[in-house]
C-alpha cells in the first residue's frame, strides 16, 4: 500500500482538496448569482405591478375628467381649456405618473372599410375604402399602391372570401413564405394592419400616426372642432380628389376660437362652396368627440410602465373600452 506520509502523496491529496474547494466556490458563486437575479426579478415584477396599479388609477381619473368635459357642454367639444395633449403630472408614492388625453376619433378608423354590426355579415363599404385610399395618397403613397392596400384591407375584414379587384383573400396569404389566412373580422389594434397584403413597412410607418381601430364600423368620426391644422389629411380624405390637404389645412386654421356651432352651417362655409359630400360623408363630420385616447406613463423607482386606453364617451357615464400596457415611453 502507498505510504500516505510521503511528501509526494501529501501534495496530491492537498491538490485534490484545493480542486474540490475551487469547484464548491464556483458552485456557490453561481448559486448566489442566481439568487440575486431572482431577487432582482421579483423586485422588478413587484415594481411593474405597482406601476400598472398607478396607471390604472390615472386612467380612471382621466375617464372621470372626460365625463365632466362631455357633460359640461353636450352640444360640442372644442379645444377650450387646453385639455387635449397637455401632460398632467400626478404624484404617486415613489415616483410620478403623467397622463395625456387626446381626441380618439380624429383618425382613420380601419374598421370603417366595412359595414355591419355582426362579424358574420361584414360587407365592404366603398366610401370607407375610398377614404383610406385618399388618406394614403395624401401621405404620398402611389395611387396604385394605395388602391391595392385599401382593397386588401377591406378583404381582410369583410366576412366573405371573395377578393375585390386588386384585393387579397386567403389564397394570397396562403402563397406567402409563412402562410396565414385573412382575419375576416374587425381589427382590435391598428398594428394588425401590418398583416394586410400591400401594406409594406414603409406604408405602415406612414399610416401609423393617422390610423386607429375603433370598436365600431362607423366612418371615421372627425370632430371638426378639435382637428388640428397639422391633421389636415384626415379632413382631406373625406372628399378624395375634391379637397386638397392645403385647402383642408387653411380651413382648420381659420376655425373660430369657440368652434363651429352646427354641421350644416359648417358645410355652407364659403371655402366649401362647390363641394357636394354624400349624406353619409356630411354626417361624418362631428361637433362632439365620441372616443378619447388616454396615455398614462408611470415612473416608479426607475421602472417605467405605459398604459394606453380608449374611452367611449358617446353615452354617459364614459366607459373604458380597452387598454394595453408596455414598458418605456
TrEMBL record:
Cell inner membrane among keywords: yes
Domain T2SS protein K second SAM-like: 222-284
SUPFAM superfamilies assigned: GspK insert domain-like, Pili subunits
The keyword Membrane is annotated on this UniProt entry: yes
Domain T2SS protein K first SAM-like intervals: 106-215
InterPro entries in the record: GspK (IPR005628), GspK_central_sf (IPR038072), Pilin-like (IPR045584), T2SSK_SAM-like_1st (IPR049031), T2SSK_SAM-like_2nd (IPR049179)
Alphabetical UniProt keywords: Cell inner membrane, Cell membrane, Membrane, Protein transport, Transmembrane, Transmembrane helix, Transport
Cellular compartment(s): Cell inner membrane
Family recorded in the similarity comment: Belongs to the GSP K family.
Protein name: Type II secretion system protein K
Organism, as annotated: Sphingobium naphthae
